[in-house]
Amino acid sequence: MSNSSSLISKIRQKTIIPVSVALSVVFLLQLYFVFEVSILSNDECIWQPTKSESGKLKYVFRDVKQDGVTWNAGIRDDDTLQKINNVKINDAKVAQLELNKVASGDSAVYEFSRGKEIIQTKVEVKKLVNFGGLAFALFGGIWLLIGAIVLSVKPDGNTQVIFFRIGATLVLLSCFNFLIDGFNENPFSKYWQIKLFADLAYTFGSVFIGFLLIHFFWIFPQRLKIMSFKWTKRILYLIPTCIFMCVIILRIIFLYSGKIPPQKILPKFEVINLILISLGIVVSLTSLFINYYNIKSKTERNTIFMILIGYSITAASFLYNFIVSSTLNPSMRFNSPEFFMPIILISILPLAFGYSIFKYSLMDISEVVKTTIIYGLATITVAAIYFLVIYLIGQTVSNAIGTDYQAIIAGAVFIIFAFVFQSTKDKFQETLTKRFYPEQFAYQKVLLRFSKEVPSVIGLENILKSTSQTFIESLKINKFAIALRIKNEQRKFKLHSNFGLTENFHFDINIEAFAKFLLMKNDLNMPIVIEENEFENIFQDKAGLLFENKIFTVIPLQVQSKIIGFLLFGLKYSGSKFVGQDLELLTAAANQVAYAIENARLYESEKEKLVLERDLENAKQIQLSLLPKTFPKIKSTDIYGTMIPAMQVGGDYFDLIKISDSKLFIVIGDVSGKGLSASLYMSKLQTMFQMYSNKEYSPKEILCKLNENIFQKIERNWFITSSIGLIDTEKKVIVFSRAGHTPLSIISHGQVREIKPGGIGIGLENSEIFDKSIEEVSITLLKDDVLAFYSDGISEAMNEEFELFGVERLHNILLKNSHNTSKYILDEVLSNMTKFRGNALQNDDITLVLVKLV
């Protein structure tokens, strides 16, 4: 898509001039036909074909204009035409062709009969121009000229493209001037291919012109809401395409085949054309009125007032011509052709467009053209002055010291003045800008100052504030907003600064369409500016909001290939859009803003990173400080345990609380979450465990007490899993309870048992529900039994292939090494885990406490 868009843009840029030249040639040919081919000699009367008593066809004078050229020659109504310039008249076409040979102001010799008398007289010849053909030719030619200028300035502008299409289509419509096939010799009559092309062009133009006018005035001067629907544009082109195909089929069947005479079938086609053109004029003119009255600003209204008046006159002249043609006597065409002249007024509309475009900078044209002319002439003038000075100085020096060193002197003088010329030219251009473009000059000064200052502004909020103040207060832009990308989102953006918009809204962008847009702009070496015609493609369903809020220009905030936000602009203080050099200035300022925002974000990110690292270090210290410094000596037991924190501090914790020489509480826990908060919860957990771990409470009761104290204080998205075992070595028994934690594994004489009493995590439910869920079991122990308390950091450890270490591997290692000491067994578990994990990072805390009865 990007390649095709880029290709279309390139082709359009390269073909604007050739297509415009080709259509201009067609326009000039139309003028030639109007003034040379279709022009008729006029004798201010009608030759009415009438059958004589003998049945022969004769031509009788009717509606002879009083005091007209025929009247003054003595001819009256009911006289019969016999000859013109000695050529016998048996056919009206022959008569007209003979009369057309006479130049305007000269006389033709008429021979006519009055009763039985034959009379000769001289009749002065006038020339009659086809005002309808002239009007449409001028209408299309003028529109084409303005459209070519508009499109050459901005080949990718949607409004500009449609405006040019209208001009091109009007020129094609005016090809009906080539189809004259009556009273004059048509030079194209010999070439049926040319006549076929002219007929197809005329048919195409008459079918499409109304829909093009509707499309244009639905987006100009402001986009109407109906254009926000995706199907609108398709329908505006699908309907005329279908009509055109149907008309062509009908013309092939009835007209080109010769089945029906042209004079019978053509009027029916003309009715279709008239209806389509009239519909287009009515709808588009109504849309222009609606747009005009929707504009509140007097300045903005002034920009299209002349267009509104011009279009009203065009529509009125079109209607007038239709009424005159339908109601007046046909003889009025020859006797009073001035009644048909007002049709020329249809060409006022493109003239009104031209006036408004160049006066009010509509469609981004006026400033560009004026700038080119002014700066071009200024540069040429300054260059001419400098070259004249160089020549005079060179001649003077040469005359003083001789001509031997003339070339060296001229070269030296040229080099010196080249440096002087550049600096003077820049100052001269600045003076011209200040004189002829005060608004642009002010923009340059403000934006250049802003571009220098914004990199030194510290903090995101300060940057946004400074940017908003610059565009709103200093440049007095009527609508402005800054949209920044939402954190951790690729396509979602949110307004952070808003002036003049109805609401702060979020919007998504079409990443694929935007990427293609960037490629196209870069490929064409054009400023990266999103204009109205791209809104729907890039901003999708939010494009309507931009149109409603009168946002006309959007500039991306881009850092290398990353889009971090957008600047949204309405109109300038003068009421015109940003164009040409304005866009270059805004783009340069946007680049500075983008880098300033990115630097501020990097600074904040680095700051957050430092805070996080400090918190993690503090959390790690807290976590490690909670672990037992030594292992208590309990009769007939071999105890060893460890907790290895992950890179990010987790919430693992274990404790060994001695009650007596034969009794020991073994506690293992895991706080959901990570970081400093998790370590603080662990600290509270340890305090409460040590408070309740005494002779008065069983493991189940301790867990219930913990939940009772923590439930109301812990955040709802946090919870704690824990297991508690109370070992009594005298009775050879362990009382075990757990709250959502991993099971207790017991290795006894070559067998593995998993102890899984019921229970939910601490802090998940209130005491009533929690207490009912917790179960407690008592297990008899034997000599050489190995008890393994572990966290899910062991069972859920993963290797590079994302395979889990699993409980089964843990049990196999415990079984294989159960005859060894607790420390040896633990080291074997850790060693096997390290080998299994390979280069994969440790993703969770690892906690393992082993108790072996000896």
Summarize the structure.
With 854 residues, the chain is α+β, with helices and mostly antiparallel strands. The protein is built from 25 helices and 24 strands.
List the helices and strands and how they pair.
Blueprint: H1 2-37, E1 40-42, E2 46-51, E3 57-62, H2 69-72, E4 80-84, E5 87-88, H3 92-100, E6 107-114, E7 117-124, E8 126-128, H4 131-153, H5 158-173, H6 192-219, H7 230-256, H8 262-294, H9 298-327, H10 332-335, H11 348-360, H12 366-401, H13 406-436, H14 438-453, H15 460-474, E9 480-485, E10 492-499, E11 506-508, H16 511-523, E12 530-531, H17 532-539, H18 543-548, E13 553-559, E14 562-569, H19 581-626, E15 637-644, E16 652-658, E17 663-671, H20 675-692, H21 699-710, E18 720-728, E19 733-739, E20 744-748, E21 751-755, H22 767-773, E22 776-780, E23 786-790, H23 792-795, H24 806-816, H25 822-837, E24 846-853
Antiparallel strand pairs: 1-8, 2-3, 3-4, 4-5, 4-6, 6-7, 9-10, 9-14, 10-11, 12-13, 13-14, 15-24, 16-17, 17-18, 18-19, 19-22, 20-21, 20-23, 23-24
Helix pairs in contact: 1-4, 1-16, 4-5, 4-11, 5-6, 6-7, 6-8, 8-9, 9-11, 12-13, 13-14, 14-19, 15-19, 19-20
